[in-house]
Write a structure and sequence with these properties.
Elements (H helix, E strand, L loop, with lengths): L6 H8 L12 H9 L3 E3 L7 E3 L1 H13 L31 H21 L10 H5 L1 H11 L14 E4 L6 E4 L3 H13 L2 E7 L6 E7 L3
Antiparallel strand pairs: 1-2, 3-4, 4-6, 5-6
C-alpha cells in the first residue's frame, strides 16, 4: 500500500465488525479496499467483504490515533469494543448475564469467521485473525467455555500471556486441575497444547499454538 486510505475508506474500516472484520460500504469503497489489500471478497454467497490482516492493522492504528494519549483505557464493559479477558485486569467486574451474552456472541462470531475465511470452511481450527491476535483468541476460547480469568495481578483464574515463541501463548493457572482444563478447552478449540514446568520454580503452565491442519 503506497498511500493511506481515504477518509471515507477509513470510516468503512473503523466500522468493521470487531470480531469477524465484516465490512459494510458501497461497492466502490469495498472494491477499492480489496485493490489495496485491506479487504477481500468471500468467494461463497453472499460474497461479503472482510478485512485482511493488513486491514485489521489499519483499523487498530486508526483507533489508537483517535484515542488521546492521556485518556484512561476503555472500561471492560459497556459500549467499548468487545475484548476477551486475558486475566489480571484491574477492576474487572464479575461476569454477569450481559458479559456472558457478549462472550457467547463473540465466540459465535469467531466460529463464523473461521467458516468464512478458512480455505475449506472448517470451524474446528483457528483462522488467520486468531493467529494475528493470539492472546485475545486464546482468552476468548477460554472465557467462552466458562473458565474464569484471574482478577488483578494475582489470585486464582487463568492468565494468557504472549511468549517469545512465534504463534504461541502461555496460559498460567495456579490450580493444576484447572490448568489442565484450560488445556483441554484450547485443544477442543483447535489449538496445539503442551504442559511445561518452570525450570527454577516447577510452576506448571501450558503453551498453546493455533493448529493449521
Amino acid at each position: 500500500m503506497t498511500r493511506p486510505p481515504t477518509a471515507a475508506q477509513r470510516r468503512v474500516i473503523d466500522a468493521a465488525d470487531p470480531v469477524t472484520g465484516r465490512l459494510r460500504g458501497t461497492e466502490a469503497q469495498l472494491t477499492a479496499l480489496v485493490r489495496r489489500g485491506l479487504a477481500f471478497r468471500h468467494p461463497r454467497p453472499p460474497h461479503d467483504h472482510f478485512l485482511t490482516p493488513a486491514g485489521h492493522r489499519v483499523r487498530e492504528a486508526v483507533q489508537e490515533a483517535d484515542t488521546p494519549a492521556a485518556s484512561p483505557p476503555p472500561a471492560p464493559t459497556g459500549t467499548a469494543v468487545f475484548a476477551a479477558r486475558i486475566g489480571g485486569e484491574e477492576g474487572a467486574e464479575p461476569a454477569g448475564p450481559a458479559r456472558l451474552r457478549e462472550v457467547r456472541g463473540a465466540w459465535q462470531g469467531l466460529l463464523e469467521l473461521r467458516r468464512m475465511t478458512n480455505p475449506d470452511g472448517a470451524t474446528d481450527r483457528p483462522c488467520a485473525w486468531e493467529r494475528a491476535h493470539l492472546v485475545q483468541a486464546a482468552a476468548l476460547a477460554l472465557e467462552a467455555a466458562g473458565h474464569g480469568p484471574a482478577s488483578g495481578a494475582e489470585g486464582g483464574g487463568y492468565l494468557v500471556r504472549a511468549t517469545p515463541q512465534p504463534e504461541a501463548v502461555a496460559v498460567h493457572e495456579p490450580d493444576v486441575a484447572a490448568l489442565r482444563g484450560c488445556a483441554a478447552t484450547l485443544a477442543d478449540a483447535g489449538w496445539q497444547v503442551s504442559e511445561h514446568g518452570e525450570p527454577r520454580t516447577g510452576v506448571r503452565y501450558v503453551l498453546a499454538s493455533p493448529r493449521r491442519v
